[in-house]
């Protein structure tokens, strides 16, 4: 199975949610690969998102196709260093190749769904080429309803399947908007809310992170969903 992971924007917790889904699958004995088509804002010798996934989920296969030092959209970042942009077709081909010897392949995008890989190619095209469902990672608080609804609506209008929404960083002390969003997110998006990872989960050791993943993702993602408490 291939699952594409996108976000409603940058910094909403895509990498941590990707790692949590991977941890649950590894816990079931599955062979898991995480593909990062384009990593931006990270230098050649620096640790990127996949290093975080490997730390949290030992044993997972990781693959990065392109890396650009500037914290920009992949297409823009590639142009700044004179590199050929990574195409959606190249990303889809790599994911399909990994799927030949892995039970689950997670494809983590950069930024949101319509961030450009090429002049007119985005993560949405990668999902379409793979005919893969897309998991949307959202913020917890004020503004997330609109951002989430817009992302899911784009998926729907393009004929793509949205697997559901996960809150990437649930605050220890959620405010009024965050608490209501647990109920409102599935209402405004018409897709299921599949979990809410606690803020700070990335700092946990692998065994504790695996436990958190099991308890804060829904059964559809290999866990036992428990609603966060205020």
TrEMBL record:
Cellular localisation: Cytoplasm
Pfam families: AAA_26 (PF13500)
Gene3D superfamilies linked to this entry: P-loop containing nucleotide triphosphate hydrolases (3.40.50.300)
Binding site for substrate: 40
Broad class of the protein's primary localization: cytoplasm
Keyword Chloroplast listed: no
Catalytic residues in the record: 36
Enzyme class (EC, first level): ligase
Subunit structure and binding partners: Homodimer.
Record-given protein name: ATP-dependent dethiobiotin synthetase BioD
